[in-house]
Design a protein that fits this description.
The chain is α/β, with parallel strands linked by helices. 33% of the residues lie in helices and 22% in strands. The chain starts with 17 loop residues before the first strand and ends with a strand.
Length: 467
Amino acid sequence: MERFTRGNVPDHLKRPLATLQPILARPGKPTVDIARLEQEVAGVAHVLPMIEIKSPEHWIETVRSLGADVDAIIPVSVPAYPTEVWNSHPEVLVERGLPVVFWPLMEYDEPDFWRWSARDMLRALGVTVHLVPSIRDGKTLLRALGTQRFLKNSRLVVFGEQNFPWNARSAGHLVKEGLGTSIDILPLSAFRDRRDAFSADLVEKVWAERSARFVRGNVRPEHLDTALRTYLAIRQILEERKAFGFGVNCYGDLIIKGGRDVPCLAQALLREDGYIASCDGDFIAMESMVAASIFLDAPCMMSNMYPVTYVGALRDHFGDPLSPDLARFPRERWKNLARLAHCAFVGIVPAEMTPTGKVALRDFGGTYEIPRDGRGCGIDSDLRGNERATAIEMKFDGKTMIAAGVNIVETSRHNLSHCETTALLEFDDLPKLVANISREHVVVLYGDYVHELEILAGVLGVDFICC
């Protein structure tokens, strides 16, 4: 499933093509058909014209002069002769710091095992080397290189006080150091003060153009108007700052001070515009969403994850433990079961991830601690049941990625005004995830992508934990 976007998405919101420089070590039949390579990676990477090396001096000069737009070198040789210039003169690869990609033998779709020794020798010297096992993995690697370039000078915006553990003022520099993303911190007034500048005609036009994927529930007209103006104001700020995503600290600032101008609809609409958005201003969740929506081009959502074995904690939080039906889910199965829930609903689920392709606009749900009062514009939607999925968590250090296999069992309805809808998930190994977890926020996307995410982690240079 590809994520839904509208119109022309700005370039800074797209994963750039990886740029590859093939280098032919010596005259002869090359191990890689460059014309076929260009066809195979179209839409994922740009292949520069091949450079044929004339001498060791030419090799050194060539590698040193490669531009900053080159993401990797593809050494091209003749079969079964590993006495190549990158083996005799590898020092320039260490100096230049560019990754080396030994492409698979495309005729057989298998790795070029004659490069085993070159891989190990170059890695021992400090060169990043990828000996690609298949064309499919090769394309995944190139998407990862493009994602790395996307993140290198990227920007996020978070609104509100920084009083949750995802405190961008104190911990945001770790993401900058580890992944490249800068974080701008703005007060709620930054978007609130802009809302009245948009005309009623523009607001009506936006809703007329965008309402097809939404079902109008019990949200009041004045709160829908505020939600649309919030969308326009935040989009304007993101455009000015060339940021790829945003989050608002609702529970630590907006809601606890009496506000109900929540950005749920703004999240949904801005995702359609190509942006990334998370609840609560969780910038780490947005980095996880990059792995889904930029790297894999897939829709995703984030929410609070509650293991159902935490009966007491769930009862304290919801006034009900939300326990699964014992007749359907025996207790020995509970160790891997968890619920997703946020603001009375599953979370801000993209319409394309729902069974109907639409989401419902409802008054904001609140929590057990913050009673629902009919104000605001929230989003209620189901996840599809019986779906294989992947959960992702980047950690605060900007150096660790967790990926977990999971089955989405069903979406459950509850007779609680502050918790109407949850999704029931069964993880492959929830105890292992909990042992390594960063926080309660997990990002979920349909499909089994643990292998692909491991490749991305390798390119980004972060540790990878599979659960």
